[in-house]
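A reminder before we start the practical. When you read a complex entry, don't treat the lines as separate problems. The point of joint prediction is that each chain is placed relative to the others, so the output describes one connected object in space. Small molecules and nucleic acid strands, if listed, are placed in the same frame. In the example below there are two entries. Take a minute to note the order of the lines before looking further.
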Amino acid sequence: MYRKFADRNFIIVAVALDAGGADAVREFIRPREPIVVPAPMQAIMGWSAEQYAGAVAPTYPCLIDEKHIVAELYDVRNVPTAVWIDEEGRIVRPAEPAGATDGFRSMDRKTFTLPSEVAEAGRAARASYTAALGDWIENGAQSRFALSEDHARDRLSGPTATDALAAASFKLGQHLHERGKPELAKRWFDEAARLCPDRWTYFRQALQLEEVGKASGPEFFAKLEALGDRRYYDEIRLD
Amino acid sequence: MLSGIDGEEEVMAVTLIYDNRASRAPSAVENGGDLWLSFEDLRASTGWEQKPEGLCLGDRCVPVPPSRTSEFIAADGRFNLSAFARYLEQPVVHDDTASVWLFGESADVRGQALRSLEAPDFRLPDLDGNLHALSDYRGKKVLLLSWASW
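Here is the predicted structure of the whole assembly.
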C-alpha cells in the first residue's frame, strides 16, 4: 500500500505505543530473520507471507512512544488507529480504527480460523479504508473522505478530566517502570485502566509488561467477552 | 536527601515530572498531600516563574487570587505546586513510596488543542534513537498510525 503512494507527497508516520521501548518493537520494525506469519494474524488480516513481510519491514519512520504520548495528544483508545493530517498540519480525520473491525472476536482460538463471511467482511473493511486513503492522497481537500472542519470536530468527544487523570497515572507508571520499580508501576497502570476501562491501550500494555504475550492472553479475551454487544473497535464511518 | 518539615521522618529528594520532563527538586517538601518547593526549583522544573503579574510561563500569566495567597505561598517562601496545578485543573498524581509527582495537561487544554484541528506536535525517537517531530513532515500528507507490539 505504502509503496504505491509514497511518491505522491504522502508519508506514513508509525508510532508504536510501547512501554517496552525499542526492545519490544525491534523485531517488528527491523526483523533479523524472515518473518513467520503468526497464524492468528494471518487469519485476521488474510495476508500472504509477502504482504506480511512488507508490512513489518517498513521504509517509513517508525517511532517509539513509551509514554503513549501520541495516544494522549490525539485521544487514541485502541490500536491500530490512524489520524489523517494534511500538508498544512491540519487534522482532516481524527483518530479512528485504521481499517480494523471487530471480526476477530469470532475467531476460533484453537484453530485460528474465522468464519469465511467474517474474514471477507474484514477484508472489505480494510479495502474500503485503503481506498478512502488513496482517494484523499489523490484529491486532497476535494476528497469526500476529507472531513469538513465541523464534521471533524463533531467526531472529537474527549478528553474528559478522567481521561487526563488516567493519562497522568499511566505516565507515572511508565516512569516507575523505567526506573526498575515494576510493582509500583503496575499500581499506576492498573489505575489508568480502572479510570478508563474503554481505553484498551492501558489495559493491554499493563498486561504485556507483566509478561510478553499476556496482552493477547486469557485476561484480554475475558474482558473482550465481557463487552457483550458493545464494540471493541469503534465503527468505521468513512463518510 | 533532605529532612522533612516539622520533624517528619527523612524523605527522599522528590522527583517531579512536568510537561513530560523529569527533574529533581531539592527544595521540595511533601506535606499533607501537597507539594511545596522554592521558586527557584519551580522555574527549573516547570518553567513557571514568579512575576509582579502572577505566575508566568512564557506569555501566559496567572494571577494568584489575593484572598488565597496563603494557599499557594508559605511563610518560608515555598510555593504549593500541587494546589496551583489543581487551580489550573491539571491532573496531579503522586507515588508516596517513590516520592514521584507527575503533573499532566488539563483535559480542557488538550481538548481545545484537538478541536483547533492543528495537529499537536510531538518528538519521538526511532529505533536508532534519532528524534523525529511530526512537524518535520509538514508539506506532506501524513497518515499518523498508532500500533503496538502487544
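Discuss with your neighbour: The longest strand of chain B covers residues 141-147. What might explain this?
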